[in-house]
């Protein structure tokens, strides 16, 4: 019998470089994703070691935009089990399904999607699992959560996307999605079973379609340790970036912060989640809640949202305008001329909706307009960075949901921000886990945003960035976790009395010490992979 052996001149130190060479030799982003996924399966320590050193290059592959391609094609590229599928056919014995997970006692954080609205790509059914895997990779790399403490879950409830039902390789149950009563009963059993099987788990709801996103957050946030990333995580990350953007914009035009006016293009779970969080930008600037609400306008596929519109969905009512009585305003440039916003935020999934005319209208109103095209993935972004810079003559204050490369214009280099909840959820999760908080409160989400806004270092401030650079994500997550823990303590939601005894500097050190590091150096020293 032959024994498999390493080649005689094999060196672990070279192998790290070899992996990067193999990765970079692939031309297609989805192939890079498949390669990295394979590497994680063969040697997860090496995978995370490489990820930590190459965040800027690898995050766009493991996360948006490429994770979107991975989801769309998951039934075809599937290679190995890497998470839990909980099927509607498991109803009645969901507890047994969850109990099959190998690391139950170590489990601390689950990302749960039902695949019904993956990024802006719609209902992908059971193909949604990679979004949970990708988010958890960011928990591991960004907040040092131990890989064995993470639980990626996709609820396999069927899909209303016919092409998947017709696909012979589709990996999910072949049925339409359940109606509200059947879905509610499934969620009830699932959440109770999660509590029974994983007593110490923080649950992140991800990419549920908008009505269910609001419904299950409202229903479960006081019963379980749960938050919704698309509503609260996005709200928090955009509040953090907006604080910095508004300061830059106000400094350029001498505008008091409370005079900003924000126009939301897109009023789904993300749009309304962000709009509600941004109320606190105005209340922090001295306005009352009611005055703050008046500084925010929302637009959906039917135009400016007004209170007199018939059949308005519940989540759109809060920001519906009562002060506009003219004919329905449906054209974005007309809406901008009417509202005169200082900031335009896109969460609409409408590619290129922010046209040259739109950007010029914003530039005509503001010396430094704030324009955040936040829809994911890149193919659904409302505005490309190079267009934004060109059409605003370099004046735009810009952050997008998915990453863009820096651009040059008029002999100057410009660096975009990435307004993505990836800056927030790792820190919220870490802070919640360490404080053993029973719930994730609005206060914890708001303090996470403030910590993110204050996290820019001198170099980032000098470069007029609105978000810190990704390479510093662990430092950022530690700062956010500290703020989240302190707020949990203030609200008496925590269950870790020891952390209360520590001054901030010591608590910050403890958070950093708790962060998992891939033990590659040790395996390197042992001469094995
Ligand atoms: N940057 C980030 O961190 C995040 C970005 N997102 C992105 O936000 C986008 C929206 O997500 P959800 O709110 O959950 O989806 P959704 O489908 O519930 O909301 C989309 C909204 O856009 C509106 N819309 C669609 N077509 C429009 C048009 N032609 N004109 C004006 N409005 C239009 C719809 O009426 C709806 O209000 C997705 O692309 C998602 O990837 C979501 C969460 C986080
Ligand atoms: C980033 C994210 O959570 C989304 O696009 O849904
Ligand atoms: Mg999401």
Describe the fold and architecture.
Keywords: Metal-binding, Oxidoreductase. Residues 231-489 form the Malic enzyme NAD-binding domain. With 529 residues, this protein is α/β, with parallel strands linked by helices. It has three domains: 12-224, Rossmann fold, CATH 3.40.50.10380; 235-422, NAD(P)-binding Rossmann-like Domain (Rossmann fold, 3-Layer(aba) Sandwich), CATH 3.40.50; 424-514, Rossmann fold (3-Layer(aba) Sandwich). It has helices spanning 12-24, 29-42, 44-53, 55-62, 66-72, 74-77, 94-99, 129-143, 162-165, 180-197, 210-220, 229-253, 269-284, 289-294, 332-339, 356-365, 385-391, 425-435, 442-453, 458-462, 473-490, 497-500, 504-514, 520-526; strands at 84-87, 109-113, 150-156, 202-206, 226-228, 262-265, 296-300, 303-304, 343-346, 370-373, 397-400, 407-409, 412-414, 417-418. Helix 16 links the parallel strand 9 and strand 10 (370-373). Mean pLDDT is 96; it is low at 522-529. Bound molecules: 1,4-dihydronicotinamide adenine dinucleotide, pyruvic acid and magnesium ion (MG). 1,4-dihydronicotinamide adenine dinucleotide (NAI) is lined by residues 117, 119-120, 210, 230, 234, 237, 265-271, 299-301, 347-350, 374-376, 380, 401, 419-421. 1,4-dihydronicotinamide adenine dinucleotide is lined by residues 117, 119-120, 210, 230, 234, 237, 265-271, 299-301, 347-350, 374-376, 380, 401, 419-421.
Briefly, what is this?
InterPro entries: Aminoacid_DH-like_N_sf, Malic_enzyme_CS, Malic_N_dom, Malic_N_dom_sf, Malic_NAD-bd, Malic_OxRdtase, NAD(P)-bd_dom_sf. Residues 40-221 form the Malic enzyme N-terminal domain. The protein has 529 residues and is of the alpha/beta class.
